[in-house]
Amino acid sequence: MTRMIAGLGNPGPEYEKTRHNAGFLVVDLLGENFRASYWKDEAGALTAVVRMGDEDIVLCKPQTFMNLSGKAIVRLLDRYDVAIEDLIVVHDEIDLGPETVRVKKDGGHGGHNGLRSLHDSLDSDAYQRVRMGVGRPPGRMEAADYVLQPLKGTSWDDFESMIPTGAQAVLHVLEHGIDSAMQEFNAKE
Questions:
Q1: Buried b / exposed e across 52-71, counting CB within 10 Å, b at 16+?
Q2: Angle at alpha carbon of residue 57, lines to 56 and 60, rounded to 5°
Q3: Please, what is the Cα angle at 137 between 135 and 143, to 5 degrees?
């Protein structure tokens, strides 16, 4: 059995320290934890295949920019013969408070362009999600400007502090299933 963890984000140094790259940061940490030794550029994404028990886990960071990330993910699902139900997508979420991590299965895209691209490409929402809370933009700031705003100082430190929790949530889904992960992470205050 093969499963996939897709972290949503944008490629390039100008996006590295933005809220929109929460998914990339979680996948990078998982790659370190699994000792991924080689990242391959394939199907519009950077991928690394790691082992967890008797399963292959495909770590994926689409390089197509957020709004087209679904196309790369779908190509990789086909290439690695991964069922939609065995896909875990990690993404930023403005509808959750900052530094909040929640787990979800199914559901709409909620206006998130990366999820919209995935929904359009899959014609399904039957995948699992780890949602990384970034909070709502202040005042009249546009959501896109907010999630793409580079973070510095304590703002970056606070944001980065939730990345290990996101990685733990992904591992919990892999080891114990989505329902157990929802009980564990969604009940936290």
A1: eeeeebbbbbbbbbbebbbb
A2: 140
A3: 105
Q: What is the pLDDT of residues 9-44, one digit of tens each?
A: 999 999 999 999 999 999 999 999 999 989 999 999
Domain range 2-186, its CATH number among 1.10.8.60, 3.40.228.10, 3.40.50.1470, 1.10.1520.10: 3.40.50.1470
Residue whose pair of structure tokens reads 């991924």 in the numeric block? 36
Closest Cα to residue 29, out of 142, 135, 170, 137? 170
> What amino acid positions are annotated as catalytic residues?
20
Q: What average pLDDT is seen over the chain?
A: 93
Element (H, E) at 74: helix 69-79
CA dihedral 55, 61, 67, 69 (to 10 degrees): -40
The rounded distance, in Å, linking the Cα atoms of 129 and 85 is 10
pLDDT tens for each residue of 139-152: 999 999 999 999 99
